[in-house]
Specification:
This protein is mostly helical. Helices cover 66% and strands 2% of the residues.
Length: 218
């Protein structure tokens, strides 16, 4: 269980919930119950309530007419817009990162790529998704662009609850690491334009699978 300290408790609750959205801890359409979240993070209900309200104000969560708060169900139009935004911003971050990536950063993403390959072989979707998130943000962090990084985190907070669906697709799993290998090779070569191209490819391939599943949910 994740325990949060008293210091800046409201901000920490917000960060924990936002990270939960990014990591797919919560599912599309899931009702978020304050007491259950408070128990999960080991804190009182007040910081959780305030964090939820903040996320609603940011439209990362949705408040229904009965005042319940849910993880939004994305329309096809909203999902398409998110995909376009991710392609633009994450591609740009990847291109910037290629010329700024230190040897230790490259080693980290190489290890994560190997880990994702292993997770696919042993059918461990939870580990794959965790390493996929770590892989992408290990790259974006090296863009040295904090405003851009915050935008990417916001976008992932909206699409993150849907990423679990990728690992339920027999179409996606065999190709899940194809673009990742190309990204790593391009970073090894210091080719920023290719990094951008392959990140865009990675997002588009996943979006095709998710878009098809989205039609059955909304």
């Amino acid at each position: 269980m994740l325990k949060l300290s008293h210091e800046t408790l409201n901000d920490r609750a917000y960060a924990a919930l936002r990270q939960g959205l990014i990591s797919g801890t919560f599912n599309p359409g899931q009702k978020l119950v304050i007491r259950k979240l408070a128990d999960l993070y080991g804190i009182s209900t007040t910081p959780i309530r305030e964090a939820l309200q903040r996320l609603v104000a940011e439209r990362a969560l949705e408040m229904k007419d009965n005042r319940s708060i849910i993880v939004p169900l994305l329309s096809e139009t909203a999902f398409d817009e998110l995909t376009d935004l991710r392609i633009a911003v994450e591609g740009a971050a990847g291109e910037r990162a290629a010329s700024r990536m230190p040897a230790a950063g490259l080693a980290e993403i190489q290890v994560l790529l190997s880990g994702m390959d292993r997770a696919v072989r042993v059918s461990d979707p939870a580990s794959y998704l965790a390493m996929n998130e770590a892989f992408h943000f290990a790259i974006y962090n090296h863009a040295k662009a904090p405003i851009m990084l915050n935008i990417i985190q916001d976008l992932w907070g909206r699409v993150g609850p849907y990423l679990n669906l990728l690992m339920q697709s027999d179409v996606y799993i065999p190709q899940s690491n194809v673009a990742h290998r190309k990204i790593v090779a391009a970073i090894e070569q210091g080719n920023g334009l290719s990094v951008r191209t392959y990140i865009e490819e990675d997002i588009r391939v996943a979006a095709v699978v998710l878009s098809a599943k989205l039609k059955n949910m909304v």
